[in-house]
Amino acid sequence: MSSQHPITPPPELVQQWINEEDGLTAGHIATQAARWGADQELEACCEWLVNALSEDPQEVSQELRTVRRPKPPTLKEQGLESLNEVIKCLKVLAPGAPVDGIHIENIHRSLEALPND
Predict the structure, then answer these.
(1) Gap between the Cα atoms of 54 and 61, Å rounded
(2) DSSP symbols for 35-101
(3) Predicted TM-score (pTM) of this structure
(4) CA distance 30 to 44
(5) Which three-class secondary structure state does DSSP give residue 11?
(6) C-alpha distances in Å from residue 84, one per residue of 25, 63, 78, 81
(7) Amino acid 1: pLDDT
(8) Of 50, 104, 62, nearest to 82 (Cα)?
């Protein structure tokens, strides 16, 4: 799982800001990053709006908020994703070995039984 935020300036751009005349100040870099991030967000929202199907402004705003600010995965979702990664690794490390044995099935069923938070 990647913890990097979807709107993160590329390292080359950050280096460019550092190399600018005022670049060695934290304020300059923070300002440039905020502007860049706002521009990225605006472009993504405009692109999404072009494809929005609803004409109800309340529905459109809620959908936009959901798309642009998704909730982080629940602990249950993270657990299931981690278990799937373990299964993939086991298949690579021990090809032909049964990886859906009783322990993995029990863990999977336990995770599935958890409520969505």
Answers:
(1) 10
(2) HHHHHHHHHHHHHHHHH-----HHHHHHHHHHHHSPPPPPHHHHHHHHHHHHHHHHHHHSTTS--S-
(3) 0.46
(4) 21
(5) helix
(6) 44, 29, 10, 5
(7) 41
(8) 104
Tokens for 31, please give them.
């300002």
Q: Which residue has the tokens 């860049």?
A: 36
Q: Tell me the pLDDT band of 100, cut-offs 50, 70 and 90.
A: low
Domain ranges of the chain: 11-68, 75-113
Q: Taking CA 100 as the corner, what is the angle to CA 98 and CA 101, rounded to the nearest 5 degrees?
A: 80
| Model pLDDT for residues 67-98, shown as the tens digit of each residue | 887 788 888 888 888 888 888 887 777 777 66
